[in-house]
């Protein structure tokens, strides 16, 4: 066949077969040691010490350590030092780098270039430019909080997250991690709520520690290690899939004979081309000071994971944004495409971002680490039940914080676990809480009681991972919790902000419960144990040790009155209930107008996501699937006619072929009919008058209609001649690399 007659799909396959592994000069030979270049593109303590006068360095260190705002009096000195450093690093521009509500990061670059009094070109960077910038940000989503003719927003440096250099193909850019606010101080980004939540959690946790007698602790921070799951497929396949390009997921595609059923991908040996990609991406991340630690194949074919060493939550959140960005750009260099969507392929596992979360105090202790002494273990129990209380009370909000269209395919859909938030603690810890509930040893002195409960033995038991439940959306894993329901593509700031604030609220309630007993004359330890017991009993419904994928769980959860918010629109509605608004106000996380605005942005985003999917599916079905189906119909018809001419009177013999043709013709008719229905559902949804109703209709009418279209398309894929099928197939995208 001439080249032009070979189908684009086969040409893509050939292209992929010819790919070589990309070797990066310098890296392949070993290059410099990681410890030597780690953080080399960040203005870290090492760079600060070198570039700043000692008193300024001290002051800046103190600022970040205490999580405070930058002192204006040192801003110019810091800016000058940052500029000198950035120029040495080859930067010509700087930008305030922030997390708008689009779910990405935003950057607007400004040159250092300016002119001095003698019209000479010079590079300048002032303290005020470091601290604050005013992007023309009127087209970021703000939920109507800030119309374009009104005041613009501004970005402000968050000194707790290090300034870094982003390398470009022809020069570098200084990036200043920032928050994004309106002139009225309303948060227009995802990072601000996270920082606010850290403040309130810090305050509440320190108060509780003081109450427990730990006076030295002046700060408590949430620690976070987000495990990033992702898919990689060859770029040649990706380019031939309009659905992947526009929506990040395949809207049609028959299941391959071999999917993940052999479980041979998970932790399997990493293919050379993929390993080369991972190594280059890690190298880039190390320079940016992102401590990525583990890499491995995930459950689905073509699925992988990268996990960092945990850091303070706000830094971890920025670093996760960098991870997503670097993975994406490095993948391109390897002719691969990164898919961060939660469910790029039906029938195999989706991707999430397991957020390992704990609390660390300024003494370096992990507050969720069971300790050796009764005193440590009393404290452990207080923080443990605070998490249970927080998750129980704010389960609906935690679900809302992870509600995006992609995650609905991972949670709550046919192949996925239900979207019910519950907590898994493991057998030993459950046993301890059950005994506390029963009041076991309540008459003994608290310290003896704690020894008998055996909390101090937990760390040893936890090292044995056999009792880990992989189906739970929120699991205790020895000395931290793992919030697993977080979507792979999302910014983690908001879900973690809600978790932080929920725990802060719970800590305040626990503090009150303890203090009330103390004022009645109860000894502190006994008061604490009673408050713990009360919380254990009250939060029992949120604890679930069984299989979260099982159908019984849905019924059981209903009995327990746990919210089961199946789809994003109903989950998002949780954010604007009066109860939620009161919570947001009480914890200082979001003001009422911010809550409303965010709700609006999220719903709008949801509607747009599905609208795009719906448009793309219509187009794929009409312009790619149907023509292939017509060609197949023609081939069958012509072949039958030819056989009839050659073998007159052999009607019986040809009956099965005719029946195949008939079924295929029926499929074509069905597809045409279902496309019409889809069209009606789509235009009907978009014509509705409120964003809430649009979102509901998208979820309840449009998505099911899309599924119906897909069902016929996938059957056609299985019938149409392989060389006439235009779209790369699952077996190619998932397995050929
Ligand atoms: P496991 O295998 O039990 O999940 P790992 O030690 O491999 O545990 O850690 C998984 C993730 O959890 C890593 O990103 C790690 O940095 C993170 N992690 C470990 N300890 C903490 C902690 N105290 N707080 C937050 N994240 C943590
Ligand atoms: Mg994982």
User: What is Rg?
Assistant: 29 Å
Our measurement of the CA-to-CA distance between the termini, rounded to an integer number of angstroms, reads 25 Å
Helix/strand/pairing class, anyone? alpha+beta
Helix fraction, binned, reads: 40-55%
> Largest sheet at a glance?
8 strands, antiparallel
DSSP strand count: 16
Bound molecules: adenosine-5'-diphosphate, magnesium ion
Shape label: globular
In percent, how much strand structure appears in the residues? 5-15%
Average pLDDT = 93
Describe the protein's architecture and organization.
It is a single chain. This protein is 50% helix and 12% strand. With 737 residues, the chain is of the alpha+beta class. The protein has 4 domains: 139 residues, Creatine Kinase, Chain A, domain 2, CATH 3.30.590; 158 residues, Glutamine synthetase, N-terminal domain (Ubiquitin-like (UB roll), Roll), CATH 3.10.20; 271 residues, no CATH class; 131 residues, Four Helix Bundle (Hemerythrin (Met), subunit A), CATH 1.20.120. Strands 9, 10, 11, 12, 13, 14, 15 and 16 form an 8-stranded antiparallel β-sheet that branches. Strands 1, 2, 5, 6, 7 and 8 form a 6-stranded mixed β-sheet that branches. A two-stranded antiparallel sheet has the order 3-4. It binds adenosine-5'-diphosphate and magnesium ion. Magnesium ion binds next to loops.
